[in-house]
Design a protein that fits this description.
heterodimer; A: alpha/beta; four-stranded parallel β-sheet; globular; B: about 425 residues; alpha/beta; Aconitase, domain 3; 2 domains; five-stranded parallel β-sheet
């Protein structure tokens, strides 16, 4: 099945308040339910565009601001396979891999809204099928790949009881 | 190999000599969560299947973001936190005690050279007392709660030399807003920032907290300062833990060294909706303001409220203005009472909240209406931050905030020079 890129009206400095507003994060505990409110202050009903396995594509400093883990958790629950951006804010970056949401760093200027794309973590490339382009991505560090493989750091920790083998 | 402060602290806590770029497992000295993140810390901790916390004395939870609870959902989270606290014998600072970033250092949990994690992005605050403290998410915090450790990427470091001397009416808040405006909201992403210079040395420890608090607004992992006599005196006054300052080696490796002379710096304002959209106060002077918020983990300390009280004493705020003042801790609130500041604020027409985060995070105590403008001493002005995406937030110092409350529009605090 083909998967598509989604771009917001805003590109850079998309903060975690935009991803999921403080108004909802306190009220709603269920991530599936919370995922219906992602980006609500930027674009009403953005969540409806996403089909399981799709990608969110943005500019630089994605996920800046508050440390709320509901942000990557709600994005994961929305069905996104990965967020692709030029750069990510630090806390969001940790949180995402901890909850098992894949983040990809690369040049994103050549991915438009609704381009069909494929992610290849073996070759470290994204194929933009719509444009016939190959885009190189920054390899994901091993420790984070291990978390992703297990579905998040909790599952990793449950299995190994420590990180000592993760490095 | 010469080392930065972050490299030294992470070397000491991981038991090996590290440098920027290394990934290490390190022992954490203290960790905590607040009411917006602790519910998920508890969930993650339970999911891990661990029965006991690693060390109950190096963890606490603070109910500060929405306190007292404004709705049933938050009340349930607060009770969940209280129950976990009873079950595991861990400390909880209940509603009305204050903001985590005031309570954690004020209670003496942090000392120089510590490695501290908080499930709140402004945990970088304690860099001002020479601790590598940084914000993480709830699951990250749960891992540390269970194991006493976490994994860290050793950050590269930017050195900022802030020299000169600040004019009357210009404060640490203006300095940090200027620096963020200069480097940009992602100018220091993943990096450690070390602050040096005359202006930093001259500042009180409280004023320094304001600087380190906002390091994350330039994307930084931490905002560190060396420990001088002011630091060690402050730490010893609050903590019984041993204080061993950590300083950078003289020729430590910095990815960038930025020199500033801020003698001529005017008061600064961050315009909606990003913290790095910074301008001198003159540029926005006269902008209509509906609500002024003085407080938060950035500027809710005693000397912040003292500055506001000096400007407001014996005066009335503008007609239609909502002035909301929130002391950062109970200790500060009591001192404000003793010194007559509370009387000053109320007589001026202001509202004094219980200690906590106040209206900063948009869940209660001053949510804005559509089209309203707020002037706040907080650290974020993101769209919707104070609860309404159709409102605007300007950020500045307590002095600029107090002057603005009197005028009903953004005002230059230097006009109240004689009082400062």
């Amino acid at each position: 099945m083909a998967n598509f890129a989604h771009r917001l009206i805003m590109q850079d400095d998309i903060n975690t308040d935009y991803i999921i507003s403080g108004r909802y994060k306190f009220k709603i505990q269920d991530m599936q339910e919370l995922s219906r409110y992602i980006f609500k202050d930027l674009e009403e009903d953005f969540h409806k565009k996403i089909q399981p396995g799709d990608f969110l594509v943005a500019g630089s400093n994605f996920g800046c601001g508050s440390s709320r883990e509901q942000a990557p958790a709600a994005l994961k629950a929305s069905g996104l396979k990965a967020v692709i951006a030029k750069s990510f804010a630090r806390i969001f970056h940790r949180n995402a891999f901890n909850v098992g949401l894949c983040l990809i760093e690369c040049e994103t200027n050549h991915i438009d809204d609704m381009d069909e794309i494929e992610l290849d973590l073996e070759e470290n490339i994204i194929r933009n099928v719509s444009k016939g382009l190959k885009i190189e991505i920054k390899p994901i560090p091993d420790i984070m790949k291990k978390f992703l493989d297990k579905g998040g750091v909790i599952e990793y920790f449950k299995e190994y009881g420590c990180f000592d083998d993760a490095l | 190999m010469r080392q930065t402060i972050a490299e030294k602290i992470l070397s000491k806590h991981s038991g090996k000599r590290v440098r920027a770029g290394d990934i290490v497992i390190a022992d954490v000295d203290f960790c905590f969560g607040q009411d917006g993140t602790s519910g998920m810390i508890i969930d993650s901790f339970k999911k891990m299947g661990t029965e006991k916390v690693f060390d109950k004395d190096i963890f606490c939870m603070v109910l500060d973001h929405s306190c007292p609870s404004p709705n049933i959902g938050v009340s349930a989270i607060h009770n969940k936190i209280r129950m976990f606290s009873k079950e595991h014998g861990v400390k909880v600072f209940d509603v009305g005690r204050g903001v985590c970033h005031q309570l954690v250092p004020e209670t003496g949990f942090v000392t120089c050279g510590d490695l501290v994690l908080g499930a709140d992005s402004h945990t970088c605050t304690y860099g001002a007392i020479n601790a590598l403290s940084t914000g993480v998410g709830s699951t990250d915090l749960a891992i540390t709660l269970a194991s006493g450790k976490n994994w860290f990427v050793v950050p590269e470091t930017i050195k900022m030399n802030v020299n000169g001397s600040l004019g009357k009416g210009v404060y640490s808040k203006d300095v940090i807003l200027y620096l963020i405006g200069d480097i940009g909201a992602d100018g220091a992403t993943y990096k450690s920032v070390e602050f040096y210079g005359d202006i930093i040395s001259e500042m009180s420890v409280e004023a320094r907290f304001t600087i380190s608090n906002m390091a994350v607004e330039m994307g930084a992992k931490c905002g560190l300062m060396k420990a001088d006599k002011k630091t060690t005196d402050w730490v010893k006054r609050h903590s019984i833990r041993e204080c061993i300052p950590v300083s950078a080696d003289e020729d430590a490796k910095y990815v960038d060294i930025r020199d500033y002379d801020l003698s001529e710096l005017p008061p600064q304002v961050a315009k909606p909706h990003t913290v790095d959209s910074v301008c001198p106060v003159e540029e926005v002077e006269g902008t209509h303001i509906d609500e002024v918020n003085i407080g938060t983990c950035t500027n809710g300390r005693l000397e912040d409220l003292e500055i506001a009280a000096k400007i407001l004493k014996g005066r009335k705020i503008a007609k239609g203005m909502k002035l909301i003042i929130t002391p950062a801790s109970r200790r500060i609130a009591l001192e404000c009472l003793k010194r007559g500041y509370v009387e000053t604020f109320i007589n001026a027409g202001g509202i004094v909240n219980n200690p906590g985060c106040g209206p900063c995070v948009g869940t209660h105590q001053g949510v804005l209406a559509d089209g309203e403008n707020a002037f706040s001493t907080a650290n974020r002005n993101f769209k919707g931050r104070m609860g309404n995406p159709n409102s605007n937030i300007y950020l500045g110092s307590p002095a600029t905030a107090a002057a603005t409350a009197l005028e009903g529009k953004i005002a230059d605090p230097r006009e109240h020079k004689r009082r400062l």
